[in-house]
Amino acid sequence: MRIDVVTIFPTFFDVLEVSLLGKAREKGLLDVRVHDLRDATTDRHRTVDDTPYGGGAGMVMKPEPWGHVLDGIADASDAAETDPVFVFPSPAGERFTQATAREMAHEQHVIFGCGRYEGIDERVFAYAATRGRVRLVSLGDYVLNGGEVAAMAMIEAIGRLVPGVVGNPASLVEESHEDGLLEYPSYTKPASWRGYDVPEVLLSGNHGRIAQWRHDQQVERTRERRPDLLAD
Ligand code: JEK
Questions:
Q1: Dihedrals φ, ψ of 18, to 5°?
Q2: pLDDT (tens digit, 9 = 90+) per residue, 90-144?
Q3: Is the model's pLDDT at 170 over the cut of 90?
Q4: Could you report the per-residue pLDDT of 19-40, keeping only the tens digit for each?
Q5: Which of 143, 148, 154 to mutate to test the pocket of ligand 1 (most atoms within 8 A of CB)?
Q6: pLDDT the model gives residue 178
Q7: How far, in Å, from the CA of 151 to the mean position of ligand 1?
Q8: Which residues have C-beta within 8 Å of that of residue 183, sequence separation ≥ 6?
Q9: How does pLDDT run across 193-213, given as a tens digit for each residue?
C-alpha cells in the first residue's frame, strides 16, 4: 500500500520508522512518503497561509501550494493503480472508526493532507475530487492544533490491517469477532503480585469456563464504561 502525507511538519512522521510500521516499511508492505508543503511554495517566505475571506479569527491555508503538491503526487502515481483516496483530517469530518480503517486498508493509494491554522481553503477539496475520491475525516470530538496527530493515528490503525503487517494474524481475527464489546482483562505471570491474584478461572485450564468468563467481563465492562456501544 502506498501512503503519501502532506504536512508543514514532516518530522512529526519520523516515528513511523520505528516499531511495527517501521518493519512493514522495511518489508515493502507499506510505502510511506512524507512531503513538506512548503517545498511547493514559490515566495521567499514559503508562505502557506493567509487571512480568511469574510473575516474571523486565525489564518487559512492557501490553495496554490496544495494544488501543486497534490498534482505532483497524483501525476507520479502508477498508471495501473485505481484512483487514490485523499484523506483530510478535519474537526468537521465524518468520524474515523475501525470500519473506516478496514475500508482504507483495501486501498492501493491513500494521500493524507494535514492542515494547520483554521484549516485548508475549501476549494482544495473540490480540486482533489477531480483527481480521486475525497474524505474529510475526524479522529474524535475534541480539538487538535492540526491534522498531523490525527493522520498518524489513522495510518497506524490502517497500516496494521494490511496483510503481513501484524505478525500474528490471529490477533486480527479475534478483534473482528469482538462484536462491538470492550476487550476482556489480560493477565500474565506471576500468578500473585503485591497481594493481587490472577482470577482463579484463568488458571483452571477449563477453556469453556474461561471463554464464558471473558465474555461476561466484556459485557460488564462495556455496560460500565461504554453503554453507548450496547444501545442496540
Ligand atoms: C485538522 C487545523 C486546527 C483548530 C476551529 C471551530 C469547532 C474547531 C481547526 N479530531 C480532530 N480535532 N481536531 C482535528 C483537526 C484540527 C485541525 C486540522 C484536524 C487543521 N486544525 C483547528 C480549531 C478549529 N473549529 C469550531 C471545532 C479549526 C481533528 C481531526 N482529524
A1: -105, 165
A2: 999 999 999 999 999 999 999 999 999 999 999 999 999 999 999 999 999 999 9
A3: no
A4: 878 899 899 999 999 999 999 9
A5: 143
A6: 67
A7: 12
A8: 218
A9: 999 999 999 999 999 999 999
Closest atom of ligand 1 relative to the 144 alpha carbon: 13
Q: Bridge-partner residues for 35, per DSSP?
A: 6
Nearest CA to ligand 1 atom 17: 146
Q: How far apart are CA 179 and CA 223, in angstroms?
A: 14
Query: Which single residue is written with the C-alpha cell 517501521?
Result: 22
Q: Which three cell numbers stand for residue 164?
A: 503481513
Burial of residue 52 (CB within 10 Å: 0-12, 13-18, 19+) is middle
Ligand 1 centroid vs 217 CA: distance in angstroms?
36
Q: How many CB atoms lie within 10 A of CB 219?
A: 13
Cα–Cα nearest to 82, from 34, 132, 130:
132
Contact call for residues 21 and 159 (beta carbons, < 8 A): yes
